[in-house]
Amino acid sequence: MNVEQYRVAPGAKIDLTEWDANDKNLFDGGKQQGQDALPALNKRLETLQELLYAEGKHKVLIVLQGMDTAGKDGVIRHVFNGVNPQGVKVASFKVPTPQELAQDYLWRIHKQTPGRGEIVIFNRSHYEDVLVVRVHNLVPPEVWERRYEHINAFEKLLTDEGTTILKFFLHISKEEQRQRLQERLDTPEKNWKFSMGDLAERKLWDQYMAAYEAVLSKTSTGHAPWCIVPANRKWYRNLIISHVIIQTLEGLNMRYPEGEPGLDKIVVE
Amino acid sequence: MNVEQYRVAPGAKIDLTEWDANDKNLFDGGKQQGQDALPALNKRLETLQELLYAEGKHKVLIVLQGMDTAGKDGVIRHVFNGVNPQGVKVASFKVPTPQELAQDYLWRIHKQTPGRGEIVIFNRSHYEDVLVVRVHNLVPPEVWERRYEHINAFEKLLTDEGTTILKFFLHISKEEQRQRLQERLDTPEKNWKFSMGDLAERKLWDQYMAAYEAVLSKTSTGHAPWCIVPANRKWYRNLIISHVIIQTLEGLNMRYPEGEPGLDKIVVE
Q1: Chain B CB contacts of A197 below 8 Å
Q2: For residues B127 and B63, is the Cβ–Cβ distance under 8 A?
Q3: Which of B92, B97, B268, B269 should be substituted to probe chain A, the one whose Cβ sees the most A Cβ atoms within 10 Å?
Q4: Is the N end or the C end of chain A the one with fewer CB atoms within 10 Å?
């Protein structure tokens, strides 16, 4: 699957209205076939994760960003289904605590970056500091404007020191969000996922899109590229992300480490 | 399944030679049937974990201990297969770093304990501080002897503050370990799991059994009980642990939180 079309070229100027959240052009088939294609990818990812862990050389950081209901939790659940929980850590970044706010905004992020042999998934990330922070004017523009540069430098540090970074923007349409929120309201067992704040945030949709366009235009780099994933169809979103991760891991040319020499002669007593 | 027989009663004096690592008396069937029974339990655990997360009230700590090759990694992989990685964190405790050694031995442990709605699995734990530390005389006896009491008090703190603790000793026989180590030596793709240190540790088998007997006799409490899991058969080990966890979670009487009032009248625009 040639997923390159979803990758944001460094320096590209992104207008999200030109990106179709409904797109599914890379898959020849419908929802059922799409869902049926996922288990084989889960299996492949499981194998690659095991190799990553065994080799203990590379570090992998996966960043998930998107509007409320875009499917960040769903990706974690479905794309990583079956992968050894020991090798995959999820770091969820919520509203910062007072202690975190007393530090620079990358402090709490840096603490959660992967070590050798690890995959870490960021459910939201340092990008919130140029998204929600910008949209809600939590700091003056001159403060958030310089953050893109910090972020690129920070990610350069991580990649120079052995981390592979993949960043996914889960792209849903405003109409799709409406349906998903309505479903949370209409389904009693999903009520707990809903908060009134979700509607207030939804009113700021356009401001968020502008903030995301700035993120995608300024922070997709050769070392830490963004993918814009069409995410209206959950099954397609899962397939695309699975393929990107698998292709990236395959590109690392990992191999099982050799045992200590002479192992073949040992008899355990 | 009545798994009570594997629970260590508080104050019981444990002699591990009386516990059969080959036992499978609770399951009527062989390996294949045992393996076939696991996916339904995985599914049930997945549902319970989701409820735990949604309710956001309870904290669950699962401690895995056992000799090398006893199957700690295998339990994590198979018992938690399919469970949302976002809700389950694995904390592996290796040889302490200099910074960790500069603190008391529970300091690094406490940092990893679960928050509300979380399940944390300890792959090894604070018990190493009365196991490997004792067997290798890393501290004098008067220092490790008083640790059982610290540990019981620490676990009491955690449970009083809302944590459910389950501790599993994966019980394999010395002969079973011999076969598993030999297999790691004989299978090139498994060589990386082997280190010469494993053979040195194996020579101390009897000392480790004595140290485990002390742990099981002194630290199985009403609030944080130990289970001795017959672990020579991997499939049986997985079934027993799955059942204990599921029964414990079911006993918490969890329910989905109510949404904010009036949700049923909202129409998303």
Answers
A1: none
A2: yes
A3: B268
A4: C
Which residues of A fall within a CB distance of 8 Å from B189? 256
Looking at beta carbons, which residues of chain B come within 8 Å of A202?
Answer: 268
Q: For residue A195, which of B47, B266, B50 has the smallest C-alpha distance? A: B266
* ipTM higher than threshold 0.90: no
Tokens of residue A93, six digits? 């970044």
| Burial of B4: CB neighbours in 10 Å, binned 0-12, 13-18, 19+ | exposed
Amino acid sitting at position A41: L
Stated pTM of the model: 0.88
A173 touches chain B (CB under 8 A): no
Q: Indicate the residue type of B236.
A: Y
Give the range of the structural domain holding residue A137, as residue numbers without chain letter: 14-251
CA A123, CA A137: separation in Å to the nearest integer?
22
Q: Number of folded domains in chain A?
A: 1
pLDDT tens for chain A, residues 1 to 269: 889 999 999 999 999 999 999 999 999 999 999 999 999 999 999 999 999 999 999 999 999 999 999 999 999 999 999 898 888 999 999 999 998 998 999 999 999 999 999 999 999 999 999 999 999 999 999 999 999 999 999 999 999 999 999 999 999 999 999 999 999 999 888 888 898 899 999 999 999 999 999 999 999 999 999 999 999 999 999 999 999 999 999 999 999 988 778 888 899 98
How many angstroms separate the CA of residue A9 from the nearest CA in chain B? Answer: 30
For residue A155, give how far its alpha carbon lies from the nearest alpha carbon of chain B (Å). Answer: 23
- From the number of C-beta atoms within 10 Å of its C-beta (0-12, 13-18, 19+), residue B141 rates as exposed
Is B219 among the domain residues?
yes
In a domain, B267, yes or no: no
Check which CATH number belongs to the domain holding B209 and give it. 3.40.50.300
**Chain B residues whose beta carbon lies within 8 Å of the beta carbon of residue A191:** 256-260, 263
User: Do residues B172 and B21 make contact, with C-beta atoms less than 8 angstroms apart?
Assistant: yes
Q: What does the alpha-carbon distance between residue B41 and residue B47 come to, in Å, rounded to a whole number?
A: 10
- A89–B contact, CB cutoff 8 A: yes
- A18–B contact, CB cutoff 8 A: no
Q: If you compute the radius of gyration of chain B from its CA atoms, what whole number of angstroms results?
A: 20
> Are residues B85 and A73, on separate chains, in Cβ contact within 8 Å?
no
CB A119, CB A62: distance < 8 Å: yes
| Token digits of residue A208 | 């968020």
* Range B179-206 burial, b when 16+ CB lie within 10 A, else e: ebbeebbeeeebbbbbeeebeebbeeee
Record: contact B195-A267, CB cut-off 8 A: no
Given a contact cutoff of 8 angstroms between Cβ atoms, the answer to whether B143 and B187 are in contact is no
B54: chain A residues, CB-CB within 8 Å? 192-193
Taking the CA of residue B138 and the nearest CA in chain A, the distance in Å comes to 26
pLDDT digits over B14-58, tens only? 999 999 999 999 999 999 999 999 999 999 999 999 999 999 999
Instruction: Look at residue A26 and tell me if it is in a domain.
Output: yes
